[in-house]
Amino acid sequence: MSTFMKVSTALACFFSVGQSLVQGDANSLLVVDLSYELHRASTFDTKLGIYNFSNIRYAVPPLGDLLFRPPQPPASNYSSINDGLDSRICPQANVGGLITSAQWDFSYITNRTLPNISYSPSPSVGSVPIPRDPRENEGCLFLDVFVPQSVLNSARTVGTFGFLSGPQFSKSGTPNAGLWDQRLALQWVQDKTHLFGGDKMQITVARGSAGAGSIIHQLTAFGGASKVASSPAQEDQAFNAFLQLANVSSLGEARAVSSDKLIYANAAQVAGSGYGFFTSGPSRDGTFVPQHPRLLLKDGKSDKSVSVLVGHNTNEGLAFAPPVRDDAGFRELETLKFPNVNQSVIDFIVNDLYPPIFNGTFGYYEQVGRTAVATTESHFTCAAYALKSAVEKSYGYVFNTPPALHVADATYMFYDPSTKSSINTTVAYILQDYLINFILHGAPDNRPDGFSSVPTYGKNANVVPINANNVTMAKDPAGNARCKWWEQVLYN
Ligand SMILES: *[C@@H]1O[C@H](CO)[C@@H](O)[C@H](O)[C@H]1NC(C)=O
Ligand SMILES: *[C@@H]1O[C@H](CO)[C@@H](O)[C@H](O)[C@H]1NC(C)=O
Ligand SMILES: *[C@@H]1O[C@H](CO)[C@@H](O)[C@H](O)[C@H]1NC(C)=O
Ligand SMILES: *[C@@H]1O[C@H](CO)[C@@H](O)[C@H](O)[C@H]1NC(C)=O
Ligand SMILES: *[C@@H]1O[C@H](CO)[C@@H](O)[C@H](O)[C@H]1NC(C)=O
Ligand SMILES: *[C@@H]1O[C@H](CO)[C@@H](O)[C@H](O)[C@H]1NC(C)=O
Ligand SMILES: *[C@@H]1O[C@H](CO)[C@@H](O)[C@H](O)[C@H]1NC(C)=O
Ligand SMILES: *[C@@H]1O[C@H](CO)[C@@H](O)[C@H](O)[C@H]1NC(C)=O
Ligand SMILES: *[C@@H]1O[C@H](CO)[C@@H](O)[C@H](O)[C@H]1NC(C)=O
Q1: Ligand 7 in contact with 357 (CB < 6 A)?
Q2: Whose CA is closest to atom 4 on ligand 1?
Q3: How far apart are alpha carbons 380 and 318 in whole angstroms?
Q4: Which residues have C-beta atoms less than 6 Å from ligand 6?
């Protein structure tokens, strides 16, 4: 799933290099005064005319005692000009199940070949690369700014650093720190974009996958009032497992331990999450995330001033769906996913929402397909549906060019004509036009699709299916009764 959120619908303009830019050193690379440091562009692309300001610190490094807490604005440091040339990346982690599914999902989609692997729900898959990439660093709250075009890119990545939670953790840690980091980055853009010639009323945020989910969290931030528990037992369990992996017994000790150990513990925990699971993610916390975001969207407790363009791929869930073999396996998986619900809810999921009827009426012909459809809807397309339904000025596309797996549309969106590629370039240009016109004008128009304009999602759940044969207009396949059911969040 990909989400593009535009904060204003008024006419946008390209950023132009304004007077606040000052001339730099002998290399003539520009230096900007950010009012807490001087930052010099790392590079200037003379062909495209784009300055690249790299590794701009927007928060104090979250190390030691600042770890697992909301970020702090950066301290003033004018001791020298920062050129952003130190290379660093956030701590990385591989989700183990994805490596296994990559071995079979393509031939399953193409030829319906069932995977020949044994799957068990016990949570240990994946490996933890050692040695680690030397650029990995916990203190990775940085932004890159490209002028005249500005691209926003910040995150502590999936994993433990930004998303520990639960009663035990919360005694001295802040849940959802990753969302607070992202919020501070968005605030930084509001405060500083004019220094790069930008207009703070014309900001577009674009993210895919878990990042698209984080945009939903930003739209529903602080959305309700009630304080609700999330899954305290599971969250405490994950927190304690993390402490164990880091070989410490408290959050205080974790803050004092070396970065290497924490980076390893994070990678090990995510890798060992089990096929179809991640361990870490946002949780209800009574403030930033007062309720499940789908409920907040349904109840109108979200930002109304934005327009959104939301895309999903047809087979979003396949890579995250373990190949279960029978009814018992399907039930066991759903119970693991929703550990706190009553049996009646699980019964409804397995008997009514995704019943064992394999003649295609429900979009599947065997258990692997059934699990994939259930995962696609519960984790991805019903979230996209909830967002598109909640925002008045929303647009949607459904990317269905085979294999249309999770994040498949990104390859087309970032297609570069100067590189060799076998993809359908018409499809690529349609997606690129949608994105560029959404950024410029707040609507995903283009010429190659043949429509005079793309209608808003509206009551009819209008979307543009984009496949390898044609580009049409249709009702969103996620605009169905099952997504209405998932929207009630009876399962958490
Ligand atoms: C200020 O920035 C310089 C250059 O990036 C760095 O070497 C120094 O450690 C910084 N000072 C503080 C107090 O962070
Ligand atoms: C921007 O500059 C950084 C630091 O030199 C470099 O690593 C990065 O590749 C550059 N990005 C582009 C798109 O040129
Ligand atoms: C699908 O089956 C055909 C015919 O057996 C084979 O040539 C092709 O490689 C298979 N494709 C995949 C992705 O497995
Ligand atoms: C399935 O995997 C097993 C164990 O790796 C192997 O012995 C068997 O030949 C495979 N079956 C098929 C049909 O590929
Ligand atoms: C864990 O900590 C204990 C006590 O500090 C130490 O003896 C042990 O070597 C550590 N184990 C690992 C794997 O770091
Ligand atoms: C589970 O069922 C019990 C008894 O019927 C009910 O009181 C409770 O609210 C239900 N819990 C959920 C999460 O639906
Ligand atoms: C599929 O099976 C169900 C239950 O037996 C039946 O009601 C339905 O008509 C069947 N659909 C098709 C397309 O065969
Ligand atoms: C590429 O996609 C477009 C839009 O779906 C379609 O009209 C065209 O036939 C496709 N081209 C090829 C070579 O498949
Ligand atoms: C568009 O392509 C899809 C997938 O191949 C096909 O099912 C549908 O009939 C086509 N629609 C039109 C209007 O050609």
Answers
A1: yes
A2: 80
A3: 11
A4: 341-342
For residue 311, the cross-strand partners are 2, 397
Residues 6+ positions from 99 with CB-CB distance below 8 Å = 125, 126
Q: Residue 162's closest CA among 254, 71, 30, 65?
A: 71
Ligand nearest to the CA of 471: 8
Closest C-alpha residue for ligand 3 atom 13:
107
What's the pLDDT score for residue 349?
97
Residue 284 tokens, joined = 């209800």
Strand order in the sheet with 474-475: 204-208, 2-6, 307-313, 394-399, 462-466, 474-475
Q: Whose CA is nearest to atom 9 of ligand 7?
A: 361
Count of positions (residues) in the chain: 492
Reported as a single tens digit per residue, the pLDDT across 235-256 is 888 888 889 999 999 999 999 9
Supply the residue whose CA is at minimum distance from atom 9 of ligand 3.
107
Report which ligand 3 atom has the smallest distance to the Cα of 111: 1
Ligand 2 centre distance from Cα of residue 43 (Å): 7
DSSP track, 268-337: HHHHTT-TT--S------SSSS-S-HHHHHHTT-S--S-EEEEEEETBTTGGGS----SHHHHHHHHHHH
Q: What is the pTM of this model?
A: 0.85
Would strands 394-399 and 474-475 be described as parallel, antiparallel, or unpaired?
A: unpaired
Pocket perturbation via mutation, ligand 9, pick of 426, 464, 467, 471 by most ligand atoms within 8 A of CB = 467
Q: Pick from 401, 398, 360, 364: which is nearest to 380 by CA?
A: 398
Domains of the chain: 12-94+129-199+209-287 (3.40.50.1820), 306-492 (no CATH)
Q: Which of 29, 30, 42, 414 has most ligand 2 atoms within 8 Å of CB, for mutation? A: 42
Q: How far apart are CA 460 and CA 473, in angstroms?
A: 11
pLDDT score of 228 more than 50: no
For ligand 7, atom 1: residue with the closest CA = 359
Q: What are the φ/ψ torsions at residue 347 (nearest 5 degrees)?
A: -55, -45
| Shortest-distance Cα residue to atom 4 of ligand 8 | 470
pLDDT tens across 438-448, in order? 988 888 877 66
Distance between CA 276 and CA 376 in Å, rounded? 12
| Cα-based angle 461, 462, 467 (whole degrees, multiple of 5) | 125
Q: How far does the centroid of ligand 6 lie from the alpha carbon of residue 136, in Å?
A: 45
Q: How many CB atoms lie within 10 A of CB 111?
A: 8
Q: Which tokens belong to 269?
A: 């925990």
Q: Tell me which residues have their CB closer than 6 angstroms to ligand 3.
A: 106-107, 110-111
